[in-house]
Amino acid sequence: MVKDELRRQHIELPSWAFGNSGTRFKVFAQPGVPRDPYEKIADAAQVHRYTGVAPTVALHIPWDRVDDYGDLAGHARELGVGIGAINSNVFQDDDYKLGSVTHPDAAVRRKALDHLLECVDIMDRTGSDILKLWFSDGTNYPGQDDIRARQDRLAEALESVYARLGEGQRFLLEYKLFEPAFYMTDLPDWGTAYAHCVKLGPKAQVVVDTGHHAPGTNIEFIVAFLLREGKLGGFDFNSRFYADDDLMVGAADPFQLFRIMFEVVRGGGYTEDVAFMLDQCHNIEPKIPGQIRSVMNVQEATAKALLVDRDALGAAQREGDVLGANAVLMDAYNTDVRPLLAQLRQDMGLAPDPMAAYARSGYFDKVVEERVGGSQAGWGA
Ligand code: LRH
Ligand code: MN
């Protein structure tokens, strides 16, 4: 039953989406923004409260560094959510100008590796099973550094992290075409990430950030391929019109999100083994409603993907009925699934319209009043 499938959906929220964010031009502060990881988790719990399918929050270190991670996990539990993936950060320290784990200087590589290993220690304390690794490493000019040597350094660091992983833990390797490096990125595409993960073993998988590809890339092909290889570990969902815009998932291209979700369903990836994480920045729009809308966009794309008549599609494909096959997919995509999802929420004891329910709650006015003093959370750059 499609509704039963949708009821068990698990979308993980990024703690950093609740803090201030922006571009190099400007970071616009917003009223009521959290000041620490405890308040970020409280805001994330609001999204789960009204959608019912966002039960975990990913942390980013050091942005979410606390003295007692066990206490933070307890705080999350009290609010009905859990702590999900731990994200490393080797992209904001002055020492990492020429790279982190790929840096020419062994001492800098050691420093970066120590941070990655610290993130695994934090996983032990939060009970997280996913370490998400993104490296901003790259160069800006041809000749700046040796492409081959940097791959050797990257592989060496990944081996050390892999060896440190405990029972039930895995790391997801994130690739990105460019930015902040503008000539060569050491992990630029899915193929490079996949090759490193295959060499390492089953605890190393690839995460597909939907904003990290060259324009025109067929992302659902990458998803189908990685699923076939058992190497799709998860998604960083967002959307973009141009580059890594980190806009709300499904906002820029809902049809692409549907095509991706269809390959997930078709490839047997609609399971707990594939982490559905959001990775977004609400630079100008209110953050909690932005996350609620994003979760709803993923639910809608998933519902449409689950509604595809697979038998009819298979028959048309076998018969070479090009238009027939395309029509089967378009029929599902053009289905208005909002009534189905509203009904599902009511079945789950929730309000049919999460956005309206949150707006009625008065939570925003409450936190704007309470969160006086201290400094608002952000990317700390
Ligand atoms: C890099 C990235 C990565 C995170 C950061 C917040 O662009 O997608 O996943 O660490 O955004
Ligand atoms: Mn990402």
Strand order within the widest beta sheet: 1-2-3-4-6-8-9-10
Proportion of helical residues: 40-55%
- Per DSSP E runs of 2 or more residues, the count of β-strands stands at 10
The share of residues in extended strands comes to: 5-15%
Give unreliable regions as ranges: none
Q: Taking Cα atoms only, what radius of gyration do you get, to the nearest Å? A: 21 Å
Instruction: Sketch the topology as an H/E string, one letter per element.
Output: HEHEHEHEEHEEHEHEHEHHHHHH
Q: Number of DSSP helices?
A: 14
Provide the structure class: alpha/beta
The set of bound ligands, ions and cofactors reads: 6-deoxy-beta-L-fructofuranose, manganese (II) ion
- Chain-averaged pLDDT: 97
**Main sheet properties:** 8 strands, parallel, barrel
Short description:
With 381 residues, this protein is an alpha/beta fold.
Structure description:
- The chain has helices at residues 2-7, 37-51, 69-78, 106-126, 147-164, 190-200, 219-228, 254-266, 287-306, 310-318, 322-333, 338-347, 354-361, 363-370; strands spanning 11-14, 56-60, 82-87, 130-134, 138-139, 170-174, 184-185, 204-209, 232-237, 275-278.
- It is α/β, with parallel strands linked by helices.
- Strands 1-2-3-4-6-8-9-10 form an eight-stranded parallel β-barrel, surrounded by six helices.
- Strand 9, helix 8 and strand 10 (275-278) form a beta-alpha-beta unit.
- Helix 2 crosses helix 9 (287-306), helix 4 (106-126) runs parallel beside helix 5 (147-164) and helix 7 (219-228) runs parallel beside helix 8.
- The longest helix has 21 residues, at 106-126.
- The mean pLDDT is 97.
- Manganese (II) ion is lined by residues 134, 174, 209, 236, 279.
